[in-house]
Amino acid sequence: MSPDRSNQPGLDVFWEQADDESNDEHPLERELVHRLEALTRYTDMIADAEAGGYGGMVEPLRRQRDRQQALVSALRDALRRRV
């Protein structure tokens, strides 16, 4: 059963590309890598917003980063249960 990705359109492209590349990694591992990259991007954007004086952007970016962190934690838990 595939995860519900109806509210994440860019994720469909990610999964299709990974499948096309015949990646041997477990789907949860691929998803974790994707989410870790997103987490890093949000962290970098927050630092850039703070340094650039765009304080109004910091809180929305933090919420997005926190959402990514929650997904990363859930994926790590799922991978631990799998082993």
Task: Characterize this entry briefly.
The chain has 83 residues and is an all-alpha fold.
Q: Can you walk me through this structure?
A:
By secondary structure, the protein is an all-alpha fold. The protein has a domain at 26-82. Helix content is 78%, strand content 0%. The protein is built from three helices and no strands. It has helices at residues 9-20, 27-51, 55-82. The longest helix has 28 residues, at 55-82. It is elongated, with a radius of gyration of 15 Å. The mean pLDDT is 84.
Got a strand count? 0
User: Which regions have little confidence, pLDDT < 50, spanning 5+ residues?
Assistant: none
How would you sum up the global shape?
elongated
| Secondary structure tally, helices | 3
In helices, the fraction of residues equals: over 70%
For the sheet with most strands, the description reads:
none
- Measured by DSSP, the beta-strand proportion falls in under 5%
What is the string of SSEs from the N terminus onward? HHH
**Rg of Cα set:** 15 Å
Round the mean pLDDT to the nearest integer and report it: 84
How far is it from the N-terminal to the C-terminal residue, by CA? 19 Å
Find the structural class using helix and strand composition: mainly alpha
List keywords for this structure.
single chain; 83 residues; mainly alpha; 78% helix; elongated
How are the SSEs placed, and which strands pair?
Layout (H helix, E strand, L loop, with lengths): L8 H12 L6 H25 L3 H28 L1
Helix pairs in contact: 2-3
